[in-house]
Design brief:
The chain is an alpha+beta fold. It has three domains: about 60 residues, no CATH class; about 50 residues, no CATH class; about 45 residues. The protein contains five helices and seven strands; from the N terminus they run E-H-H-E-E-E-E-H-H-E-E-H. The chain starts with a strand and ends in an 8-residue tail after the last helix.
Length: about 170
């Protein structure tokens, strides 16, 4: 579950609870947005463990906003300099090989190359949760973020590489 644009924080817990109960992503989104007076400003994607996807791009999201759905993935963007960013992200994601984190970083690089955020660059993040919670600490495999950096994608890539090599505990 991912939400952006004008975020409604309760969407996270509500959607995860509904998914655990077996509710389909499309139904989850219908219920969330149907009960939300601010739904027109929200951008939300829900993907379940079976790979079913539903997205909501509110009609009042800050332009450029849009989504692209693929096989077991979704790319969303808003506040972009121009249209085509989600499409560039999706293309990079499917044509990049390797671990999931590398594919996500490639998609983020493609978003920047296709126009990026009209506010400029400042932060980036990647969070990957295992399907089976025994695989990591509560299922959390990667949770890295760069909150303020002149080159946030380069810094995030450095952190992902450090995480992948176990460099957190190596000598400095």
């Amino acid at each position: 579950m991912a939400t952006q644009s004008f975020v409604e924080l309760s969407y996270g817990a509500k959607s995860l609870a509904a998914l655990r109960d077996g509710t389909a992503p499309a139904t989850v989104l219908e219920e969330l947005t149907g009960a939300d007076a601010g739904a027109a400003t929200r951008q939300v994607a829900v993907i379940d463990a079976q790979g079913r996807i539903a997205v909501h791009d509110g009609s009042q999201c800050v332009p450029e906003a849009g989504s692209v759905l693929g096989e077991q993935f979704s790319c969303q963007a808003n506040m972009m300099r121009r249209s085509g960013v989600p499409e560039a992200m999706a293309d990079a994601f499917v044509t990049t090989s390797g671990p999931l984190a590398a594919r996500i970083l490639s998609a983020l690089d493609a978003a920047e190359a296709a126009g990026g955020d009209f506010r400029g660059r400042q932060s980036s993040a990647v969070k990957i949760v295992a399907n089976d919670p025994v695989e990591g600490i509560n299922g959390l495999l990667i949770d890295l973020r760069v909150d303020d950096h002149p080159e946030p994608l380069s810094e995030l890539r450095r952190l992902v590489d450090l995480h992948a090599t176990g460099g957190w505990f190596g000598s400095q």
